[in-house]
Specification:
The complex is a heterodimer of chains A (387) and B (387). Chain A is built from 14 helices and 11 strands. Chain A has 387 residues and is an alpha+beta fold. By secondary structure, chain B is α+β, with helices and mostly antiparallel strands. Chain B starts with a helix and ends with a helix. The chains are: A alpha+beta (387), B alpha+beta (387).
């Protein structure tokens, strides 16, 4: 700490340079924080996946599976609780504003006890036939509150009277889940099913279940697919762990590698900037350092001073940058257009740790060469100004 | 001496002295190279995807889907309706007088990517006119599937993304294994997909309705006739579009979403690079203070001096952008890639490189402006006296 006044004086020798370097480093670490914060979000989703859950859907697409399959799957060995669900998918007001309502039966809460609704909220939902539970993100998006109505136009899902407009009552506003990026709405399957033409009734788009033994959920998925392989509705089943795995999403893109490379490109950019700044600063003050050494400063203390000078923009910029990323992570959802499904970064502790490591690496890498030069300097030559 | 000649001379003097300011100047070059390298590498995916979607849609073909469908998979066209649609006016006729229109179907086939992650590939049905409608279709190896048999053909690019997509491989459908007997190319998105006989595949996946109808228009303007015939028929509830407009529409939402994210990252990085640029140019102006003052004393105007500073920033910035663009072009241009269900080539087009240069010029203008003003404004006498 006793070097601080000297280091501070060195930094403030060129305030414009100090500030611009700091700003540049701040930006690089904002990006760094956002990128790794996104990786943290994906990792959290993956970690939250329940090992005992299995999802089954129609293997070759089409108009859904008969709801009788829910009972058939329930009868298979190794199945604990089963639920069937469908969706109302469409738009709100204009076709660009997409939304959907997940229509589940009353077993849903048993299969997904970790989902946000409380038992009281589930009960409240069951009491209102056309009721929905709306998550906060959706409520914010459509400016809705408890008790409002919510209308979706679903071009592909005509009701019995031919109308494609679905109006729901918002029973309550519930919390969000990281895997449902744009929020979600939850309604009653029975209401959905009975609203359709008779010919369209009795179909589910997915059957979700809990395995009695979480270690055998993969086998259960395979068993279901085998059971229905040559039926009228072959299934494609996947464990929740697999469904939420980062590699199985993002269309085959290695999204974590992309994020990492972007963050590293940002660091590389400022590595060049910071090392240049520190090299220049040392060059300009070569005679000063010689003087310091003459009056008894050791090689070590001079090198520490250079390292501190390099560390200043990295540490301060790193802190500011990650702080800015944290603020942005909070503000961004509100700045997005409705239905813009961008996942938001989660600023986990390890993201801060990684940023600290990045800052230390940049500071160390940029201070090394100038510091070594100072150690090997010839004091007499430096003092005479013939560098 | 004319203004331009002054600018020219001052700039040449600048550029000649760049060597002595090599390291600080490299900050701009490296910064811009990072920004553009990251930006164009990411955009190569959107550019390639856009190009593939554009090639896939032919404006001389019309696609008919059920009202409100947002993908061919979501659409259903019952057989009796298909007959009406294909007999409508505006459709070109084959040599035998039959309409050049074909009922299509799409089924998602669960596949594994080469890296073992889960995905779906599109199995498309071709009816009797499927090939005649698509002059771009050519067999590459093996043979065409025989209508009525359980055989498939595969696009030439599918095997670059998915496992089991070569001639001789078998695809599991509900009624057993279907061998792949040939490979084809169309030069567009179909190159990543599987094709089978519409009726036979529908039987296998137990579909009763087609997904869509593709028709060749008699003339470019026949769309209006065709559309009118379909939309005024109360028995039909379909929408008609040029196939090119359809592909444009289904690509648009995702492409826009991804572009916003990518440009967001690019802008953040560019701001970081901008601070680096400001830093370097302020330093350059201060180092060259006496040189500039000498020029001013010799009668060179303030404006040429200022312009020369911006030109120097632009030279460095554009050099960096070209390095970054070169990197993206060498590493990504033309690389066979896939995203979601689409297989296509990444593309770093001349338009993208042009945009990169514009970004570089903008950063240089912003980063050079204030330093250039300082250079031009500094009193000559004071600058000459400064050490």
């Amino acid at each position: 700490m006793r070097y601080f006044p000297l280091v501070w004086a060195a930094i403030m020798r060129k305030p414009a340079r100090a500030i611009l370097t700091l700003l540049s480093v701040t930006i690089a670490f904002t990006l760094f924080g956002l990128m790794f914060g996104m990786t943290a979000t994906f990792a959290n989703v993956e970690a939250r996946a329940h090992a005992d859950r299995v999802f089954s859907g129609p293997r070759f697409g089409g108009t859904g599976m008969p709801s009788a399959m829910v009972r058939q799957i329930a009868a298979l060995p190794g199945v604990k609780a089963v639920t069937g669900a469908n969706y109302v998918g469409g738009y709100v007001q204009n076709p660009k504003q997409r939304s959907f309502v997940f229509m589940g039966d009353q077993q849903f809460a048993k299969v997904f006890p970790d989902w946000p609704p409380t038992p009281a909220q589930w009960q409240a939902l069951y009491k209102v036939r056309n009721g929905i539970l709306m998550s906060r993100i959706q409520a914010h998006m459509w400016h809705k509150k408890k008790g409002d109505t919510f209308t979706i136009v679903a071009p592909g899902q005509a009701r019995a009277d031919g109308s494609k407009t679905w109006t729901f009552q918002i029973v309550d506003i519930i919390g969000d889940m990281p895997q449902a990026i744009g929020g979600f709405n939850f309604g009653n399957y029975d209401y959905f099913d009975k609203s359709l033409k008779l010919a369209d009734q009795g179909k589910v788009q997915e059957v979700d279940m809990q395995a009695t033994d979480p270690t055998r959920s993969t086998e259960l998925a395979a068993l279901i697919d085998r059971t229905f392989a040559s039926s009228a509705s072959p299934t494609q089943s996947i464990t929740e762990k697999m469904a939420y795995a980062v590699g199985n999403n993002f269309g085959g893109l290695d999204i974590n590698a992309v994020m990492r490379d972007i963050a590293l490109a940002g660091l590389f950019m400022i590595l060049f900037l910071v090392s240049n700044g520190i090299a220049q600063s040392v060059r300009e003050r070569f005679a000063e350092f010689a003087t310091l050494k003459t009056i008894g400063f050791s090689d070590r203390s001079v090198m520490i001073m250079v390292a501190l000078e390099a560390a200043f923009p990295c540490v301060v910029g790193g802190v500011l940058g990650v702080a800015l990323a944290t603020v942005l992570a909070r503000l961004l959802p509100g700045m997005m257009p409705p239905g813009f499904g961008l996942p938001m970064p989660t600023m986990e502790l390890w993201v801060f740790g990684l940023a600290a490591l990045g800052a230390a690496a940049v500071a160390l890498a940029s201070a090394t060469i100038p510091a070594l030069r100072l150690r090997q300097m010839d004091i007499a030559t430096a003092l005479s100004g013939r560098t | 001496m004319s203004m331009f000649r002054q600018i020219w001379i001052v700039s040449v003097i600048n550029f000649k002295s760049l060597r002595s300011r090599m390291w600080p100047s490299l900050v701009i070059v490296v910064g811009m190279a990072c920004v553009i390298g990251v930006l164009l590498s990411m955009l190569s995916m959107i550019e390639g995807r856009n190009a593939a979607y554009k090639r896939t849609g032919d404006p001389m073909r019309a696609l008919v889907v059920s009202d409100g469908a947002e993908s061919e998979g979501q659409s259903t066209i019952p057989r009796d309706k298909a007959r009406i649609i294909m007999d409508a006016p505006g459709i070109a006729k084959a040599a035998d007088g039959s309409p050049l229109a074909d009922p299509g179907m799409n089924a998602g086939i669960p596949v594994l990517r080469l890296n073992g992650t889960k995905a779906y590939n599109n199995l498309r049905g071709f009816g009797p006119k499927g090939v005649a409608l698509r002059p771009e279709f050519h067999m590459v190896a093996g043979r065409m599937f025989r209508p009525g048999t359980r055989e498939l053909i595969v696009g030439v690019s599918a095997h670059t993304q998915y496992q089991g997509m070569n001639i001789g491989d078998k695809v599991v459908l509900p009624d057993g294994e279907w061998p792949i007997v040939g490979s084809f190319t169309t030069g567009d998105l179909l190159d990543g997909q599987l094709i089978g006989d519409t009726e036979t595949v529908m039987l296998a996946v137990r579909r009763k309705a087609y997904n869509s109808i593709l028709a060749r228009l008699q003339t470019y303007d026949s769309l209006a006739t065709f559309k009118k015939a379909l939309t005024t028929n109360p028995a039909l509830s379909v929408s008609v579009e040029r196939q090119s407009d359809w592909y444009k529409k289904i690509n648009e939402g995702f492409a826009t979403f991804l572009s916003i994210v990518i440009y967001g990252v690019g802008v953040i990085m560019a701001i970081g690079a901008l601070f680096g640029c400001l830093n370097t140019m302020y330093a350059a102006v201060s180092v060259r203070g006496r040189e500039i003052a000498t020029l001013r004393a010799l009668g060179y105007g303030a404006f040429p001096v200022a312009v020369s500073v911006i030109l120097e920033a632009a030279l460095l910035s554009v050099t960096g952008a070209l390095i970054g663009a070169g990197y993206a072009w060498i590493v990504y241009d033309g690389v066979q890639s896939g995203f979601g269900q689409n297989v296509f080539h990444l593309s770093v087009s001349p338009a993208l490189i042009g945009m990169a240069i514009i970004w570089a010029v903008v950063v240089a203008l912003l980063g050079g402006l204030f330093p250039s003003i300082r250079a031009a404004r500094r009193p000559v006498v004071e600058a000459l006296r400064a050490t």
